[in-house]
Structure to design on (152 residues):
């Protein structure tokens, strides 16, 4: 499954201001709720439960919060670049400024671990990460996340 299959241009937030991890996850859950018509509490509850298992802060300023959601019919992605890095209990203990928020249908037959790996590979590419941090245009950010390296 390709990132472009579940990340729309409208779901790119080039500048999100949050003071901490809880506020960022709450705001991303709110935005996902509006886009999907699923209660914010359902999304935030699932994301929070997943975070309790271990932080999704993967290091290098990147986090990949994700959760399975009952009633969701398709994978849904939301990308946010934070206006200021925030503590996220990341593996390398460094603050996070790039967040890819992924919701997975509870009954999905797709191996979502391969989808997570695909997203992580993309954003952990140092050139892509640098360009994500410099771009302000949602269309450019979307292209960086969804296009082949020769396209961006």
């Amino acid at each position: 499954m390709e990132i472009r299959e579940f990340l729309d241009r409208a779901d790119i937030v080039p500048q999100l201001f949050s003071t901490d991890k809880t506020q960022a996850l709450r705001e991303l859950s709110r935005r996902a709720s509006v886009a999907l018509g699923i209660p914010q509490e359902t999304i935030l509850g699932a994301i929070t439960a997943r975070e309790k298992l271990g932080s999704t802060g993967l290091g290098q300023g990147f986090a990949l919060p994700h959760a399975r959601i009952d009633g969701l019919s398709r994978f849904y992605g939301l990308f946010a670049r934070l206006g200021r890095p925030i503590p996220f209990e990341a593996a390398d203990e460094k603050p996070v400024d790039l967040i890819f928020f992924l919701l997975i249908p509870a009954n999905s037959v797709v191996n979502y671990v391969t989808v997570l790996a695909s997203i992580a590979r993309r954003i952990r590419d140092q050139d892509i990460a640098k360009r994500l941090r410099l771009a302000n245009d949602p269309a450019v950010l979307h292209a960086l996340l969804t296009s082949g390296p020769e396209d961006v």
In short: The mean pLDDT is 92.
